[in-house]
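Readers outside the structure-tokenisation community will struggle with the description of the input data as it stands. I therefore recommend that a typical entry be quoted early in the introduction. An entry of this sort, consisting of the sequence and the corresponding backbone structure tokens, reads as follows:
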Amino acid sequence: MYIKLDNDINCNDYGESFEWETITIGNYSHYTGCRYVFDLGGYTIKNVKVKAANKMFVFGGAISGGENVNATLQNGKILNVFLTGAVGFVSGYVDMLNISISINGTDATGIIFENIQDGSIIQNCAIYFETAKLNNGLFMAQYHYGDYDFLKNCDIELHINNLNGQQIIGRSGYNGAIHSCESLRITGKIKGGLPRYALRIGTSYYSLLSGGSLTTLNSSCVSIDFSEVTTGG
């Protein structure tokens, strides 16, 4: 199924009371093995207040027998997304390609980019994220079998006033699987409760504080201001 946006969407046009409810693309209970493409067509969705207990997008999933509903979100901009009281931005079996995204995650309750699964990738994206306090992980992959990149060729800018002991990049779900990241540029500033290993990739750990020096991750550049963090954990 191919869905293409044919104009910009400014949620401010719908009034101050408008709130975005979860858009689910791909019903894994009924449409197994299908491929869904949501093509932004170079257009922009902006000024999005996601309703409490909702996400902006949920894409498909797996069912018994191993069949998946897979999806692609591509080619455009999603800007000024506010997650106050919402769960997160996206979850599911989705490739995110060639997208610019800006998110204010203050008071979001869950993982921002959740359950990026089974070979899905976030690639060639520019992502800006800010929050007063991170209540859960930022980029969390899950249910992986084998080794592959799930973040690649992305420019990520982070402004986190309190990391709150959470992971920036990590994996939840089954043990023993490995995933990795490649050719990332991560910049910004992180304050507050930084755990000893704030950025985790697969089963390997990379310290973001190593005698004051920065750590390169799989052909990646990490240049984050840690001058106001406290370490622990």
User: Anything to note?
Assistant: Residues 191 and 229 are 4 Å apart (CA to CA). The chain is about 0% helix and 55% strand. Confidence is low (pLDDT under 50) at residues 62-67, 174-178, 200-216. The first strand starts at residue 2 and ends at 4.
